[in-house]
């Protein structure tokens, strides 16, 4: 039985370990925290959103970024302090603009395929993660935003995703608690929401039942490969420990870039900070006034998810500020104010703030496939759609590892064919 190391215990690492174990590999997962899903997979927006598949490689994104650069509470904030990493990333981001249409369509197609995998795994393993299949409603305050959404809908349709335009009256029928005046919206009935932290930990337990060794609290000091095997160096109280494996899959989020360098590869991930708040709905009035349908406000770049009866998650914004994990009050305040504006009956007396670093590739497409060494693989760089795409990219990398290394395979559910990036 071939041995595989997976580095990273977030959503991509856990789904990868699970997919590999189902194929008959002996998997060891390394995670620096004491538990799974303690960083970017801890408190995201909750949306499983094929309808949010539009990549950001569009001139409008750059224009907004320049306009908002000196506005501390802007939805998109770029620290003007230059760095080679940031400059190279944005240069590649601009270079990927000709692929905006193609990549948006491909992302939608992957998101649809991922949905069926994730639901099937959750049902098979008995994972309760506050799944709500009530669709996602995109809301627009002006004609320009609504018209752009119409063009995006055409691309999503080419990827296989149906969504429909709705009038303000229809929006109120879909989500009666939403306050304010709107030009119109788009509703995707087949999208859903859920708690990424609950799901990841539930799948981690399922992976252990399949034989995965999850080594939490591990300090991975280095990785290397000789072309035939890969090694992982752990820092321990008694000194460094080196472990050898037949293969290595890097699923380490924003840390993947540095690990790739050690393995002779370039994976130009940039950490894009996002914020969220979890509003505890502690009284009946707040529970009644909170939305049950998930929303995406394209103007403010905020999303909502109702997680069970007693929690409302609001998340969004994008901050290009290096590996800074600070939770800034001036970035959290707009999320709280948005709740007060759109859902005035919800009490924001009990709010838990959070920030996480999304691992983003310049073309907004995940890095899924083999490295320069035949025993090194990557499943990382999912950006703001890690939760949405995780199940399908795990299956994709499982197939790639299988083709490269072989193993005694356990049958897996059939799925649409996908080409690794």
From TrEMBL:
MF-aspect GO terms: D-amino-acid dehydrogenase activity
InterPro entries per record: FAD-dep_OxRdtase, FAD/NAD-bd_sf
Leader peptide range in chain numbering: none
Xref: Pfam families: DAO (PF01266)
SUPFAM superfamilies: FAD-linked reductases, C-terminal domain, FAD/NAD(P)-binding domain
Domain FAD dependent oxidoreductase stretches: 4-398
Highest rank taxon of the organism: Bacteria
Single GO biological process annotation from the record: D-alanine catabolic process
One annotated Gene Ontology cellular component of this protein: plasma membrane
Keywords: Oxidoreductase
UniProt record similarity statement: Belongs to the DadA oxidoreductase family.
PANTHER family found in the cross-reference section: D-AMINO ACID DEHYDROGENASE, SARCOSINE DEHYDROGENASE-RELATED
Name the record gives this protein: D-amino acid dehydrogenase
Organism of origin: Stutzerimonas stutzeri
